[in-house]
Each structure stands twice: as structure tokens, then as C-alpha cells.
Here is the input.
Amino acid sequence: YQKKHAKFSEEKQLLKQKPYLIARKSVVKGVQEDPKLALEYMKLKKNKEFTLNSNVNVVGDKENPIEVVHYVKRFEEMEDDELNRYLDSAKKD
Here is the structure.
């Protein structure tokens, strides 16, 4: 049926996209109302800009292994005042 009725097939594909469009609309509305959701969204979309990243290079061999433990606090682990200080310092840069 779909092969004979291209218009039906096109309409079906558009209807399959509707749940995604509704979800996207909800996210956009939520981002406008909730700063933490906005930050989470930006961390997903613009990862390098909105996450706290740390790169550690470790040099060692079998005879002299080196263990490095490096912890970076994530945005969601920060208290509001700590997050505000971080964001304020980023604005100055």
C-alpha cells in the first residue's frame, strides 16, 4: 500500500516524528523555567564549554607504576552558591 501511495508514506513518517517534536518542545519550555535543566541541556549539547573537564597525563612502566587519582566536581554536585561563584568567574574570563 505504501509503495503505491507515496503521500501516505510521507504522512506516516511525519507522524512518527511528532513524539520527538513534543518532547523537544517540553525541553525548551523546561530550559526556560529551570536553570539547572538548562545547564544539563548545554552540557549535553556543548560538552566542552559546559562541563568541568580535566586531563591528566600519567607516565610509568611495569617496574615503576604510577597511580593518579584525580577528582573533578561536577556541576550537579555543587551547591547553588558554589555554582554561582563558578559561573561568575567564568563571565570574567
In short: The two ends are 60 Å apart (CA to CA). The first helix runs from residue 6 to 33. The mean pLDDT is 77.
